[in-house]
Structure formats: C-alpha cells, structure tokens
C-alpha cells in the first residue's frame, strides 16, 4: 500500500513540475511545407500544408495566409494532421503563409513563407518496370495531365539505386528520358530502384515504390573463408567444419562440395542449400557441416551454382598435442565490443601466411556464439562487434596459418563482458586429519557457473565463533585443489569455509567441520626403545672387547677351549649355534670324554638308600658296592620313583622339573661332599682338566 501511495505522489509531483516548466509564452513554430497535389483525387485544386505538430500539446496553432501583394487576409485554425486551404479561399499567384501559436501566456508566429501557386504543383510518382536481359528500367505516369501540361522536354526525373545488402542509395539526377540503364552491374546481384519526377519548375513527386532487379548470373567468384568450430577442450571429436557465406555479388549459391581426408581415405560430400538433408546448416552469415571432424587431417570446400564453382578452399587441421603457447594475447571486452591484440613473434617466419582470431561462447552448439576474423602478418589487432552476454564465459583464441594451410594454435584465454560473483564450489572435504594439521580438498567451480575469471580461492578458518586465519589458494589450472592447514591446536573443533573470488568480489561459501586428533606423547615409548638399543650396543661392544681382551672373562673360561667339545652339553637345547660368538681358543674335533650331569638336589629324601634297601618281600638287605655307586643308583631310583602327580604339579605351577625338598644343613653338606668325591672319581681326564670344580661352582 505504501508503494502505491509513493508512486502516485511521485507522478503528481512530476506532472506539476512539467506544468511549471511549461508556463510562459509558446515558442515560435517553424514554417510549414505546402503543395498542390495533382492526380486523380485532387486534380491540382487545393493547397495542402503539413503542420508537423504534436496534438497532445495544449498550445493552439493556426495557419494564416494572405496575398503577397494585398492586405486582404484569410485564415483558418485547427489541430488536424493536414491543413488544407480550399481553392475558393485563395487566388492564383503568390501567397504569404505563416503559422501562429497561442496559449494563456501569450502567442508567437513563424517566419513568413512565400508560395507561388504555379510552382507548388506536385505530380504523383511514376510506375517503374524493367527489362531483365539488358538490365534496364523504365517508367510512366498514371495521369495524362502531366504529359499534356509538361510535355516531353519539361519533365525531369531522378533515379536512385542500391544493392539488396546496402543501406545507402546511389543517386543519378535530372534524367530527361523515361528509362535508365545501369552500366557494369555486379553479377548475380539484386538491385533496388526508385524514381521521382517533376514538371518544369514544379515540385518533385514522391519516390516511387521500390523495384527490384537481379543482374545476370555468372559462375561464383572468390574463395570461401574456411575454419573449424571447436569447444574449449580443443578435441577433434568436438569440432565442426564451418565457413562464411559468399557475398551476394558472387552469385546465387546452389550448394557446396566438401572433401574430407582421413589419412589415406578421401570422403566427398555434396550438400545442397535447398535440401540440406541434415548435413548442412546455414544461418545468416555462416554455414557448417554437422558431421564430426574426428580423425580428419585436411579439408577442402567449394561453392557452386548453375554457371560453375569457386576455387576450393583448403585447410589442414591442427594435430592435438602439438599446439604451441609461446605468445600471449591481450583482450578487452564489454557488452558491445571485443578487442584482441597480440605481440609480433620474436622470430618472424617466412612461412607465416596470416593470423586467425576467434571467440566462442562457452556452452553453445556449433555455429552459435562463434565468430572469427583473419588478419595479415602485419596486423596485431582484431576487433569484433556484437552483443555479448553478461556473466558468460567466452574463449578467445589466436591461431596462425602457414602458406601450406597448416593451422597452429598459439594461445587461448577466458574473458567476460561483465563479471559477477561466482557460485560455491560443488564439493569441499577435509582429510588426513592430524593433531596440528589437516589437508583440504575441493572441486573447482564449473566454468558455466564462475560468472568471472576466478583469481583465487579464499579459505577462512574458524575456531569456535572467532575467525582465526585467512588463507588464499591459487586458482591456476596447474595447481591441485588441495591446501594444507598447519599450526592447529590438538583436540580442537574447527570450521573451514572456502569461496571463489573474482574481480567482482567473493562468491558463496562452502563449509566443512572437523576436530583435530589428540597429541600422542611418544616419549614413554621412545625412551625404552632407545635404552634397549643402547644396551644392545653396549653389550655388543663389551663382547667384541672381550673377544680381543680375554682378561674380562671368568677364570674357568680359559680351561675350556670350546664347551661344544664336551658331550656333557650336547643334549642341551640352549647350547647350539647361539654360542658361535664365544671365544674359541682351540678346537678338538672328536675328543673322548664321559657324560657328566651336575644336579643340585634340594628335595626331601623319602628314604635313604645308604642305610637300607627293600626287596619285594619287605626285608632289609645291605647295599652292595661302594658308596659312590650306591648314591648314583639311589639317585636313579629316586628319579624313577617321583610320582606322576608331582610331575603334573610341576607343569601346572610352572616350577622346575625337581620338587623342592627340605634337608637339614648337615645332610646337605654330607651329600655335597660325597657327590663331589663321586664326580671326581667318575669324570675322565678331559672333564677333570677342563670342567670347573664344585667349589668353583659354589663360589
């Protein structure tokens, strides 16, 4: 409601302002054009004047006249579109005519015009006809009065002509004949003619209706401007063969003949402009083939009519992957003009024939939003005029053509007539999340939604509700769409926003959220590892030192050159190749030694075998043999007499193979003394010489 009220108030104020500006006497009008039309309707009677006034104007206008040699005045007034002075209101001769304007603030009148009624006769325009063979036009009049009044020698006529494609007229004046012949017309061209005539000093008639005439058809001349229409990927499968139509002066074109070379294969296409059959599409200026140029190496096209054909136009298509981009181009673009300039090559080539500059609206089909111009080797600027859409990408490209019709791509850029803010990136993700850094990835804004040249991507990092940092990532196609954020806080929630930025400003945001990981303290893991490594190094160093200096080893080490020479340890699993590092003073391949097993018995003796032995009948018999053999026998029997449950208990509780027995100190000393004597008596010379004594073992 408020809007309607505001509009009404503004309109009232504007109307009052115009009324205020219109206050005051009227401006003096200009003189009017007057004539006496002759013909079937008026027959040279009344005077007609053209007021040329705006009927919406509130000022009143009136036409006034009087004889030029008399004070008698006659006047009419009105606001019609055609003022008429009736024949009965004037006398033949000279009249003084003027226009008067009047309103409430005053009046004004135009300068005087002197009219001679004999000279303001205006005859109707003639009717024009032609002869096709001689390219000649002629005319006649609809009124016989003109022939009777003027005669042949008093008529004067003007002829003007132009081609159908031209806007301006070419005029020949004061033709005293009733015909006109044009010399050297352009072949196969449509011309337009108009004629107007006068009688003596009378006014000239209006121009006749346009009469069209086509010149004689000849074989078309000229060469087709041949080119290719490709999308921005520069791929052959997306290219179409296109050319510009010949001017009408080249004749009426009936069709085109195209030759496509596929390496060693030649394909001939003959397409008619009357029935294209889907292979040819012609617009106002351009034509193009709908077939693909994939795998086509070269093409040639000629235009033909009923009289002949043009010279074929050749084009060798560029090979994908061999384009060179060593020359920059500069583009200035607005909604009406596109100017492209480039630098001259540093090393001019004699093989260079011309440059080609083209533009292509991104997303358009073949033949749409596309144009090109060819420039000589001396030119470095090209200009296009047209209507270019806002916020729409156009690809501008520069090519060169050699004398052998080979095409080379020089450079391409994307430009806009007017830039806007881009859309948001279609995808934005966070990966490789660590405690103090993460990696961001995003997809580029599609070219059709960029609305301008993207200068960079702006990344804003928020920690909570506060903005923390701002980063700018490159938008160059050579850079990957990734960015690493560093120096973050562990176990912290973050929000990251990314947006593309053009010359018009930033676009819409895309948002991603993440939480950094907990910082792991590797000290408690690294320190033990370091200590273990250092210990191993120290042990290895000590072993190596001991192998060189044997003073650090025990005293009995020097008595045994190699423990593996003794059969005592041959069945022990722990003594194998692992003893390879032990210092070996000497080696005896096959020594003759006895089997010796040293076992310290700390178990309770169930029954002493030294006192008595039981037979199956329960009688006590004396022990046979010496004391050492009896102890050995007793040990063997004791081992065999160990209950199975004890063996199972040992495995269950992870204990040693022998049960733990409680002996008195006196029994222990006696057994050890006896066992030592037994060992001494049972060992061979090798073991007695090299093996340690019981005393050494106890020490």
Automatic annotation (TrEMBL):
Q: Which GO terms describe its cellular component?
A: plasma membrane
Q: Mark out the compositionally biased spans (Basic and acidic residues).
A: 634-676
Pfam annotation, one family: fn3
Q: Which UniProt keywords apply?
A: Glycoprotein, Membrane, Receptor, Repeat, Signal, Transmembrane, Transmembrane helix
Task: Indicate the segments forming the Fibronectin type-III domain, all copies.
Answer: 424-521
Q: Where is this region: Disordered?
A: 613-684
Q: How does it sit in the membrane?
A: Single-pass type I membrane protein
Q: Which SMART domains match?
A: FN3
InterPro entries per record: FN3_dom, FN3_sf, Ig-like_fold, Type1_Cytokine_Rcpt_Type2
Q: Which protein, by its recorded name, is this?
A: Fibronectin type-III domain-containing protein
């Amino acid at each position: 409601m408020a809007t309607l009220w505001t509009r009404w108030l503004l309109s009232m104020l504007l109307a009052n302002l115009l009324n205020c500006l219109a206050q005051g006497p009227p401006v003096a009008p200009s003189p009017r054009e007057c004539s006496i039309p002759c013909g079937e309707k008026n027959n040279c009677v009344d005077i007609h004047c053209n007021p040329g006034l705006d009927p919406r104007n509130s000022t009143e206008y009136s036409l006034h006249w009087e004889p030029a040699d008399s004070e008698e005045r006659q006047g009419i007034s009105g606001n019609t579109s055609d003022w008429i002075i009736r024949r009965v209101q004037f006398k033949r001769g000279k009249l003084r005519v003027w226009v008067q304007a009047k309103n409430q603030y005053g009046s004004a009148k135009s300068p005087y015009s002197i009219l001679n009624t004999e000279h303001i006769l205006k005859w109707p325009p003639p009717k024009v006809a032609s002869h096709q063979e001689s390219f000649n036009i002629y005319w006649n009049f609809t009124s016989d009065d003109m022939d009777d009044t003027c005669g042949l020698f008093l008529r004067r006529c003007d002829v003007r002509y132009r081609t159908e494609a031209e806007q301006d007229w070419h005029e020949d004046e004061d033709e005293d004949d009733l015909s006109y012949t044009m010399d050297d017309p352009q072949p196969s061209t449509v011309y337009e003619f108009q004629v107007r005539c006068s009688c003596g000093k009378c006014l000239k008639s209006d121009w006749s209706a346009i009469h069209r005439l086509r010149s004689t058809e000849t074989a078309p001349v000229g060469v087709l401007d041949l080119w290719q229409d490709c999308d921005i990927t520069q791929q052959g499968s997306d290219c179409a063969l296109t050319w510009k139509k010949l001017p009408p002066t080249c004749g009426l074109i009936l069709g085109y003949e195209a030759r496509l070379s596929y390496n060693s294969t030649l394909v001939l296409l003959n397409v008619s402009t009357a029935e294209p059959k889907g292979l040819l599409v012609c617009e106002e200026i351009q034509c193009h083939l709908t077939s693909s140029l994939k795998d086509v190496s070269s093409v040639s096209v000629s235009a033909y009519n009923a009289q002949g054909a043009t010279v074929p136009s050749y084009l060798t298509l560029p090979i994908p992957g061999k384009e060179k981009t060593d020359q920059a181009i500069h583009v200035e673009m607005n909604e009406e003009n596109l100017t492209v300039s480039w630098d001259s090559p540093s090393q001019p080539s004699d093989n260079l024939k011309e440059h080609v500059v083209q533009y292509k609206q991104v997303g358009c089909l073949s033949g749409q939003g596309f144009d090109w111009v060819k420039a000589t080797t001396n030119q470095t600027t090209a200009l296009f005029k047209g209507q270019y859409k806002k916020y729409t990408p156009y690809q501008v490209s520069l090519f060169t053509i050699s004398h052998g019709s080979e095409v080379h791509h020089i450079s391409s850029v994307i430009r806009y007539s007017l830039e806007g803010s881009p859309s948001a990136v279609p995808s934005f993700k966070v990966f490789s999340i660590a405690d103090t850094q993460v990696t961001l990835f995003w997809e580029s804004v599609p070219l059709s939604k960029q609305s301008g040249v993207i200068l960079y991507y702006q990344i804003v990092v928020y920690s909570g509700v506060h903005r923390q940092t701002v980063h700018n990532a490159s938008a160059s196609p050579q850079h990957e769409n990734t960015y690493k954020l560093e120096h973050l806080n562990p176990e912290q929630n973050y929000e990251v926003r990314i947006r593309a930025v053009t010359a018009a400003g930033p676009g819409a945001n895309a948002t991603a959220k993440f939480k950094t990981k907990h910082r792991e303290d590797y000290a408690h893991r690294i320190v033990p590892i370091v200590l273990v490594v250092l210990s191993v190094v120290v042990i290895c160093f000590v072993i190596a030192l001991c192998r060189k200096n044997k003073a650090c080893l025990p005293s009995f080490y020097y008595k045994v050159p190699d423990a593996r020479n003794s059969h005592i340890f041959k069945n022990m699993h722990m003594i194998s190749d692992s003893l390879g590092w032990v210092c070996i003073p000497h080696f005896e391949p096959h020594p003759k030694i006895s089997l010796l097993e040293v076992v310290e018995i700390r178990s309770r003796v169930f029954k002493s075998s030294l006192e008595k032995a039981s037979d199956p009948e329960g009688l006590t018999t004396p022990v046979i043999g010496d004391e050492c053999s009896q102890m050995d026998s007793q040990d063997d029997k004791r081992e065999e007499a160990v209950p199975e449950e004890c063996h199972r208990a040992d495995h269950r509780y992870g204990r040693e193979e022998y049960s733990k027995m409680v002996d008195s100190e006196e029994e222990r000393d006696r057994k050890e003394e006896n066992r030592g004597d037994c060992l001494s008596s049972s060992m061979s010379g090798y073991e007695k010489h090299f093996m340690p004594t019981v005393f050494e073992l106890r020490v």
